[in-house]
Design a protein that fits this description.
This protein has helices at residues 11-22, 59-69, 82-94, 98-114, 120-125, 144-149, 151-159, 169-175, 198-211, 257-262, 324-337, 381-397; strands at residues 3-7, 26-30, 46-47, 75-77, 132-133, 138-141, 164-168, 185-189, 193-195, 215-217, 220-227, 230-237, 240-246, 248-251, 271-280, 291-293, 298-303, 306-315, 345-354, 361-364, 371-375. It has 414 residues and is an alpha/beta fold. 49% of the residues are buried. It binds flavin-adenine dinucleotide.
Length: 414
């Protein structure tokens, strides 16, 4: 039995804590914000086992100017941030060639194909099935031309084992009658589901884990110092600076993992893809499932506390200032699809952790096998959290991983 610290209480960190406790370890969780204080709080809630197509793909070269200049584009770049963003952006473009894109999609499909296995036991053991809504996600295209343009990616998904059903305008309308008849085509993804409240799910998971022996420290980890027989953490707990020693440390700090990895010898080009949500209390019954709008880059998901409209991408670092234009775009677009929507509440900003090749970092640090990484899950961290937690537990146990971890090594950027 080992003494293991987990840094970060999002989908990845709490799932890691689950699998580590299942192995009988003593586990301490560090997070200054508590359970679901990061990107895991406000996502669209979809278990998107179909999302193997990374944002970086060959169409980026054709579409980027439009995405950067159109007023209805779901992608925005803060130009003043460009100098800091440049290395990531160049890496992103380098990974958008047909060959590298196919390699990333294949690696993501391998993860996604096993993602359900990361949650099956957890949902049962921790009594969390009550948050799961078994309604398949529907992805919609308002223009037939956009649908045709995305055919190659849909075909690649099929080749990589994703099962979907393509719907025409009438079938979309029959499935979701409250939607305006704006949508020419839809794709319904088999085996996908969603959560009724991602944050409540994680808070319930944390409470169950505490009952099973998890120690929780409301503390920020500021330093990681691997040593021969353990790892020392420097923490800020309230106003107190402390140190703690553990046998192993799992870095699951989402978009904030870059500085921690750098202390362990790995300079990873991690960036935040900032995303937003709005909540519409009382509007959840308008749709029966998560409904995505491809051209506008967002989902509308029925949740326990209302309809959540979540998505868009802003490249502007980790600062707290929200982009009102993107929040307006979400509201205006959601109302166009569902005119019955009232006024939104809770404008929320979250940071998706993204590497230039669209793949997460999973595996050991360069400085020490006692520091294990699980971060960089971009748009699919809810979906891949359970599996990533299994990988962390395998690494601590010294078990062969269920996956070939080579494509996900931090050292791929060295
Ligand atoms: C708008 C939007 C919609 C999305 N929709 C979906 C979806 O439908 N399906 C899906 O699968 N994914 C979705 N995602 C992506 C998903 O939310 C993220 O990939 C996922 O939440 C990442 O989880 P994480 O545990 O790695 O990071 P986080 O949830 O960000 O958790 C990291 C935690 O680490 C803590 N932390 C940071 N630094 C430190 C430190 N130094 N010491 C201690 N703790 C620290 C933070 O407080 C935070 O709680 C969406 C994201 C956004 C923004």
């Amino acid at each position: 039995m080992a003494d293991v610290a987990v840094i970060g209480a999002g989908f990845v960190g709490l799932s890691s804590a689950y699998w580590l406790l299942q192995d009988g370890h003593q586990v301490t969780l560090y997070d200054p914000a508590g359970a679901a204080g990061g990107a895991s709080f406000g996502n669209a809630g979809t278990f998107a086992n179909y999302a193997c197509i990374p944002v970086n793909n060959p169409t980026v070269f054709r579409d980027l100017p439009h995405y950067l200049l159109s007023s209805t584009s779901p992608l925005r770049l803060r130009w003043g941030y460009l100098p800091q963003l440049a290395p990531w952006l160049l890496g992103f473009l380098r990974h958008s060639t047909a060959m590298r894109y196919t390699a990333s999609a294949t690696a993501l499909a391998t993860l996604l194909g096993r993602a359900q296995g990361g949650y099956t036991d957890l949902l049962q053991q921790a009594d969390l099935q009550r948050f799961v809504r078994a309604r398949e996600c529907l992805y919609l295209y308002s223009s037939a031309a956009t649908f045709e343009a995305s055919r190659p990616s849909l075909e690649l998904r099929t080749k990589l084992g994703v099962h979907s059903r393509i719907l025409d305008r009438a079938e979309v309308q029959a499935l979701e009658p409250a939607l305006q008849p704006l949508f020419a085509r839809g794709a319904l993804f088999e085996g996908s589901w969603h959560l009724s409240d991602p944050a409540a799910f994680l808070q319930a998971l944390q409470a169950w884990l505490v009952h099973k022996g998890l120690q929780v420290r409301v503390a920020q980890v500021q330093g990681i110092r691997p040593e021969a027989d353990g790892v020392v953490l420097d923490t800020l707990e309230g106003k107190a600076n402390n140190t703690a020693r553990h046998g192993y440390v799992a870095v699951c700090a989402g978009a904030h993992s870059k500085a921690l990895a750098a202390q362990c010898g790995d300079h990873v080009p991690l960036e935040a893809e900032r995303g937003y949500h709005l909540m519409y209390p009382g509007a959840a019954p308008l749709v029966s499932r998560p409904v995505g709008w491809a051209e506008r880059g967002f989902y509308m998901t029925p949740m326990a506390r209302g309809l959540r409209v979540a998505g868009t991408v802003e490249l502007a670092g980790l600062g707290p200032t929200k982009h009102q234009g993107l929040l307006d775009l979400l509201h205006f677009s959601a109302r166009r699809a569902l005119p019955a929507l009232g006024e939104p509440t809770e404008p929320w900003l979250g940071f998706r952790p993204t590497l230039p090749d669209g793949l997460p970092v999973l595996g050991r640090s360069s400085a020490s096998a006692r520091v294990i990484y699980a971060f960089g899950h971009q748009h699919i961290g809810l979906t891949l959290g359970g599996l990533s937690g299994m990988v962390v537990a395998d690494q601590v146990a010294g078990r062969a991983s269920v996956l070939d971890l080579a494509p996900f090594a931090a050292q791929r950027f060295a």
